[in-house]
Amino acid sequence: MVIYSSAASLRLQYVINFIESVIGQQIFIIYDKEAYSNYNTEKINYSNETICNDEYQIKPHSLLFQTNISTVEIKVSCCRNNPSFFINENDSHGFDFFAAIFYLISRYEEYLPSEPDMYGRFAHENSVAYKNNFLNIPLVNLWIIDLMERLSITINTKQSPIFIPTYDIDIAYAYRHQSIVKNVGGFFKTLLKGDIDQVFEQANVYSGKAKDPFDVYDWLNRLHAEYHLNPIYFFLVAQQRGQYDKNNNPTSKGMQTLIQEHAQKYTIGIHPSWQSGDSEDILSLEIDSLKKTIEENCTISRQHYIRMTLPKTYRLLIKNGIKEDHSMGYGSINGFRASVASPFYWYDLEKEEITNLLIRPFCFMDANCYFEQHLSAEEAEKELQYYYSIVKEVGGQFITIYHNHFLTDQPQWKPWKEMYERLVRVMSYEI
Fold it and tell me: Higher pLDDT residue, 13 or 156?
C-alpha cells in the first residue's frame, strides 16, 4: 500500500507506523505525484488534490501538519456505523482517518486544560470518548478494519486475542510481614469494632493456624500453569507507607522472597508509588530497589492508582529505563482510554517526538468495578465478558488488572475469585 502526502509530517509517519504494526503490512509514504500515480497497488491520496482515477482519497484535517498543541474542535457523528470526527463528505472515506487516530492515541486532549478528578488525574468525564459514548469500544481498531475492507485488503482480525492477565500487588499480605506495631494496633482496632470474624482470622494467621488471606499466590500459580498463561506482576515497593501507599515493607525477608519467587516464573514490573509522582528521586529509588531484589533490570511499569500526567510521567519513566508501560486506562471507569486495544509507542506532543516507550492499554480493572462503578461480581463478570468479546472481534490484546486482595476466600471476595477463575477458563479455551 502507498500513501501520497503533499508534505512530510512526523505525526503522519507515527500514525502510519502504528497502522503497520496492527495490520502486519508495510505502508510507503510518497511525496512525488508521478511516482505515486505509477504504482499498481492500493493507493491512498492524503491530500486535497485529485491525482488519479484508481485512488482512494482522504482529505486531510490540518492536525497532522501542525507542530503545536491547541484546542481542536471535535464534532462526533456516525460514519459507516462507527463514531467518527474530522468529517469530510467530499472524499472517499468520509473523515480524516489518520488525524482522528493521532488525536486519540497521542492522547492529545490530555495536554489541554481540563478539570482533574479527585486524585489529580485526567478525568475520564473530560474525554471525547466518554462524552460521545464510545469509551467502551476499541474505536481505532474498528476504523482500521473498516478502511482495510474498503480497500479490499485482507488482514487477520479474527485471530484469537492475546490475553495478558496482570496483577497489581499493592498489599501483598494482610497480616504477615507487617510491623509488630501495625499488627498489634490493627488487632485491637478490629476487636474494638466488634468484628469477631476478623479477630479470629487475624489470630489464626498470627498463630500459624491459617494462611494469610491475601496470600493467593499458590492458587494463581496453579491457574496460570493449568491454562498456560504468562501473567505480569507489578509490585508496589514504596520505602515509606503513606495515605495511598500501604504496601508491606519491601525490605522484609517475606517480601523479598515473594518478589524473587515470582521473578523466577513470570515477568515482573514496578508499580510506582503515589509518592513517586511527586519526586523523581523516589521513583529512581523504588526502581533500583526492585532491580536489586530481582537481580536484573526492571523495564516494565504501571502507575499506582493510575496516577499519571502527560508528558511528565512518561518522560520520568523513560529517564529511569522503563521501556514498556501498562498505565493507559482509567482508574475510575473501565474502557479504552486511548480508544485502542493494540500496543503503540508514545508520541511526546510537546517535543514532537516518537519515543521508544511502548504503551500497552488495559480495558478492565477489578477495582473500577467495585469501588467506582459499584458493580456486583455477577455484573462485573458480564462487563468482563463484553470487553473480552469486543477485543476478540478486532484481534487486539486483552489486558486485565486484578489485585490479589480481590481474589481471596474471604466472604466479601469469594464471588470475585470464582468469577475470575470462570472467565480465565473460558478465555483460555477459546485462545
Answer: 13
Q: What is the pLDDT of residue 428?
A: 78
Residue for cell digits 503490512? Answer: 25
In a domain, 243, yes or no: yes
**Residue 64 within a domain:** no
> 305: closest CA among 121, 103, 123, 53?
121
Is 265 part of a structural domain of the chain? yes
Report the C-alpha gap between 112 and 106 in whole angstroms: 12
Residue at 27 is within a domain: no
Domain count, the chain: 1
* DSSP state string for 286-330: HHHHHHHHHTS---EE--GGG---TTHHHHHHHHTT--EE---S-
Q: What are phi and psi of 94, to 5 degrees?
A: 105, -20
Reported pTM: 0.94
Helices and strands (H and E) in the chain: how many: 14, 15
Give the CATH number of the domain where residue 381 resides: 3.20.20.370
What tens digit of pLDDT does each residue of 359-395 get? Answer: 999 999 999 999 999 999 999 999 999 999 999 999 9
pLDDT of residue 187: 46
| Helix, strand, coil fractions of the chain, as percent rounded to 5 | 40, 15, 45
Complete DSSP assignment for 183-247: HHHHHHHHHHHT-HHHHHHHHHHHHTSS--TT--HHHHHHHHHHTT---EEEE---SS--SS--P
The pLDDT score that the predictor gives to residue 204 is: 73
**CA–CA distance from 144 to each of 22, 47, 199 (Å)?**
8, 19, 56
d(CA 380, CA 400): 12
CB 240 within 8 A of CB 207: no
Which residues span the domain enclosing 400? 162-174+212-430
Answer for the pair 117, 332: CB distance below 8 angstroms, yes or no: yes
User: In this structure, how many other beta carbons lie within 10 angstroms of the beta carbon of residue 18?
Assistant: 24
Residue type, 112: L
Q: What is the CA radius of gyration of the chain?
A: 24
- Name which of 11, 149, 137, 52 is nearest 93 in CA terms: 149
Residue 429's H or E segment, with its range, is: helix 414-430
311-340, pLDDT tens digit by residue?
A: 999 999 999 999 999 999 999 999 999 999
Residue for grid cell 499506582: 304
